[in-house]
Amino acid sequence: MEEQAEYETELPRAKMSWLRRISLVWLVPIAALLLGAWMVFDTWRHQGPEITLYVPNAEGIEVGKTTVKVLSVNVGKVTDVELDSSAHRVRITARLDVEARKLLSEDSQFWVVKPRVDRSGISGLSTLLSGSFIQLNPGKSENMKEAFTVLNAPPVTAADVPGLRLVLSGRSVKVLSVGDPILYQNFEVGRVEKAEFDPEQRQMNYRLFIQRPYDRLVTVNSRFWVASGVQLSLNADGIKLNTGSVESMLSGGVAFGVPENMPLGEQVSDQSAFTLFPDEASSLERQFERRLSYVALFSDSVRGLKPGAPVELRGLRIGTVGAVPYSIPKLENKTRKYHGIPVLIHLELGRLAAGAEKESDDYWRKVIATQVNSGMVLKLKNGNLLTGALYVDVDFSGKPQNKALARYDNLSVLPTSDAGLAQIEGKVIALLDKLNALKLEGVLEQGGKTLDETGKLAGDVRALVKTLDDFAQQPQVQGLPGELQRTLNKAEETLKTLRSTVGDYSGQSSAYGELNRALGSLNQVLQEARPVIRTLNEKPNALLFDRKQEDIQPKGTQP
């Protein structure tokens, strides 16, 4: 047992250690793993971005078939189509090429190209065979984006087209549509890109794009107005007819320009805001925004006087009618008489004199008060007989007055006169009264009798004319002109013979005396021969037989 114990203590102990050399067998899976990782990285590195597009509906969109194009070049393909979480739109996932990553700017635009028919014409017919595709229009922004809302229609102008974009806002104007033209002197320089209604401000907002180099035409003094179709206006100035281009006549548009009496001003920057006016006349009124307001109480009828009618001084416009009536007229009562129809009058300082804006309002109020004290009055006059439109005329036929102007609802009252229409109406009524006072019954009765007698006389004249006409139709009467003509010819020949024979037949010539004596002797002979001629007429055989002896009766005639 002791020997066995010694033997066991003498045996060496085993030492444990890690294997220092790796087997080559493990290199194969490690290399395969590295190669797979490199392939995944290389595939990811060469894979383009994945974008999300939101559309109202997925009409014409197919997974794996619908492509994304830029300038008719494929840059991606739709990989998934599904409903959005809100279930009110469709979410499209598309994978783009690597080169298309730089095209995904914040202002990039997407829209579906398919057959369309609109005011600009027919487009997208090529998709009838190839199918719809998504068009990408790159933007200019440096900020990148991967989720976009697809436009319902192609944009009017691309985001990278050089030009100027403006913002217009207007109330009580004709609603314009996207794509309507922008005109400068009836020449198209741009298009309306966007149109929307702001319910909070209760106005229409538009975004306009003006192409380069026409963007330099827009300055700080430019005015924009609606140039829609045919504009026909009937007012105190007469009939006005304005027409634009053929396209604006059909759909409408926006026109702009600088008033003639204003400087051009400096050019504006991008996204500048302007006001859109309903017409050109309204845009020109903006330069006369500074004005003095008065009230005029007219006793004449204001029928035909409309807001916007001119206020003129000897044919020159100096103001505008603001409201008709200005407020409810104050009717007659026991303590206060009727003062007339109140009309709001705006005297525009820009029309009163050159550089009038440099003076204060108090200065011009004193000037107006001085003119009133000198006899200035307002009258209503007919500006157009066809339409019956009235305007306010400033005259100086009133009586001078040295007192302050009356007040009406915190506004000064300008004196008026009814010397216009009221006096004419009074004169016409007075003339009608005088005509009504005349006793015209007897005159009318005598006139009736005279007309009856005239009718009878006309009947007798018609009968006489008929008798003369029947007499003229007889053959004997119709032959008289020829016989008379022959007689006149013979008489003319006789006179010629006498002239050649006798010569001068004047009373002082000897031939005239001889002829006169011969005619006297001939007359005497004719007087003496008259009984003989009478006897021959009664009994032609008196020259052969005795006038008292009876005719011899032949024998054998008795029975």
TrEMBL record:
<keyword id="KW-0997">Cell inner membrane</keyword>
<dbReference type="Pfam" id="PF02470">
    <property type="entry name" value="MlaD"/>
</dbReference>
<dbReference type="GO" id="GO:0005886">
    <property type="term" value="C:plasma membrane"/>
</dbReference>
<keyword id="KW-0472">Membrane</keyword>
<keyword id="KW-0812">Transmembrane</keyword>
<dbReference type="InterPro" id="IPR003399">
    <property type="entry name" value="Mce/MlaD"/>
</dbReference>
<feature type="domain" description="Mce/MlaD">
    <location>
        <begin position="48"/>
        <end position="139"/>
    </location>
</feature>
<keyword id="KW-1133">Transmembrane helix</keyword>
<feature type="transmembrane region" description="Helical">
    <location>
        <begin position="22"/>
        <end position="41"/>
    </location>
</feature>
<feature type="domain" description="Mce/MlaD">
    <location>
        <begin position="164"/>
        <end position="228"/>
    </location>
</feature>
<dbReference type="InterPro" id="IPR051800">
    <property type="entry name" value="PqiA-PqiB_transport"/>
</dbReference>
<feature type="domain" description="Mce/MlaD">
    <location>
        <begin position="293"/>
        <end position="396"/>
    </location>
</feature>
<keyword id="KW-1003">Cell membrane</keyword>
<protein>
    <submittedName>
        <fullName>Intermembrane transport protein PqiB</fullName>
    </submittedName>
</protein>
